[in-house]
């Protein structure tokens, strides 16, 4: 048996919290919902785009998160509420409009809302700040990279889930996922408002 070195222990301790914060299996149904009607090639392209967006946001935040937020005069709570509003609008649009109508209105959902705030949202950003303070920038960056590789693999292979569900099942699944997306959005707004009120 291999001995677990302190470095590997630190890596696991930095990897697991970020894995939980990103929750790739939890956001997979929402990814499937937002990519309803797309071809497998389009879905894979979107998976790459959203993962790269998440990587850029995560790296910038790991390197200069606190100074940027301080300079802009915003907090994680503000980010949470803003992200929640965006997700709520998107969820309502997804429930009320057809796939064709949504495609005419959408430009790139890979950046917003999939890249951020779904993959890298308030929970992940807060976790990244804590990891940098606890384990340093190198291990945090490595954990971000490995986690996002897993996200890319899961998203790129979401077509298999859709094939199993079939067209009718996929559409029904997408609508249910949109309802959960709306609930997640309301939760983000609610938690943000509670934090603001509790600090006043």
Automatic annotation (TrEMBL):
It is found in: Cell membrane. GO terms for cellular component: plasma membrane. Pfam families: MarC. The chain crosses the membrane at residues 12-34, 71-97, 109-131, 137-160, 172-193. Coiled coil: none annotated. It is a multi-pass membrane protein. InterPro entries: Multi_antbiot-R_MarC. Keywords: Cell membrane, Membrane, Transmembrane, Transmembrane helix. Belongs to the UPF0056 (MarC) family. This is UPF0056 membrane protein.
């Amino acid at each position: 048996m291999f001995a677990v070195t302190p470095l590997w222990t630190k890596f696991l301790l930095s990897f697991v919290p970020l894995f939980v914060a990103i929750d790739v299996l939890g956001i997979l149904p929402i990814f499937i919902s937002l990519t309803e009607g797309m071809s497998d090639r389009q879905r894979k392209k979107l998976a790459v785009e959203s993962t790269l967006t998440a990587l850029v946001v995560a790296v910038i935040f790991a390197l200069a998160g606190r100074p940027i937020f301080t300079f802009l005069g915003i907090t994680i709570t503000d980010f949470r509420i803003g992200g929640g509003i965006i997700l709520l609008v998107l969820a309502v649009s997804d429930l009320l409009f057809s796939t064709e109508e949504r495609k005419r209105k959408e430009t790139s959902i890979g950046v917003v809302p999939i890249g951020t705030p779904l993959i890298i949202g308030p929970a992940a950003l807060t976790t990244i700040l804590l990891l940098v303070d606890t384990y340093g920038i190198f291990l945090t960056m490595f954990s971000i990279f490995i986690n996002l590789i897993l996200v890319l693999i899961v998203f790129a292979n979401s077509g298999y889930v859709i094939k199993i569900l079939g067209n009718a099942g996929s559409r029904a699944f997408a609508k249910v996922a949109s309802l959960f997306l709306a609930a997640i959005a309301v939760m983000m707004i609610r938690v943000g408002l509670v934090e603001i009120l509790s600090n006043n």
